[in-house]
Amino acid sequence: MKTIVNLICLNSEPELPNLLESLKGKIDGLVAVDGGSTDNTVSILREWGIANEVTTVVKTNKWPDDFALQRNLCLNITRAEFGMASPENDIWVLMIDSDDTLTAFDRAYLAKATATCDVTGLLVHMNNGVSDSDFQVCQFFRLTPDAMWKNSIHEYISSKGHKGLPPSEIPDGKGGMVGTLRIKRGRSAQHDRDPERNIRIGRKLVEAEPDNTRARFYLARDLLECEPMPTQQRRAEAEGHLRAYLAMNAAFPAQDRYARLLLVRLLCDTGRVGEARRLLLDALESDPDNRSGLEALSRISEGKESAVWFRLSAAAEGGCILPYGSRLPVKAPTSVPG
Q: What global pTM score does this model have?
């Protein structure tokens, strides 16, 4: 198995040392598409490749306000430089950002495990250094002819017959290894220089593809996470996207739950606690084991009713992280009646 890193960058000089240090001895090649850096980003990458005897290709393409476009350029360059994945040339791409660090990557295990199954992608365990929340996303995948990134923001990899699994679920006969593939994310300096970037790109995507449920969801989330606090206008815009997303019945359970909780937070922030409660109660009819929904009901209820919802949430199995929970008006009770 060959591992080729794909990286898009723009004025990433401050972040690159940590990333490149974490890649030493773990990869076979690096392909970077630079958006037009005015610092030493390009020279740092090329010099690192020479010093570590890693084939490194750096191309420039002016930043187009489109993450998928830049990442697909990386894929095309990788195909041209390293060939296509085949039984004799098993090429895997690791997509990583300049502010990331690769904290766990067991090459020998991954090569052996992926050779024994038809998986085309592995879910990378991401530790979000900004919010201290963890999640899994497919950023390590076979370089098939049709593999491509979709969506200009909050992009995802797509290919025919694509199958992504956590490394711990690869059927290697040993149950896998927890933490085999792990990345720690940082805070991009480029985001600080252009804090409106994600919202700007997200609005363009939704305008071009109004039925794109993923774009609606992430634009609403980005609007609510803008710093220091979203304006009243942005709250209203986010509410519209969340209602549109939920009406589309996207059938992504975890994302549906998160969208509903974001809308609950918005409703509570604007004094519509009764409507928030009805929204949660309606959702429980089809998703009764939703821990985060039950916890939210506990937080916006009072007295014995709050305690009942809290007890049910403690026993539930499904759910997701409760977003902005401290901003819901009532905290979960510290003691629960028997």
A: 0.86
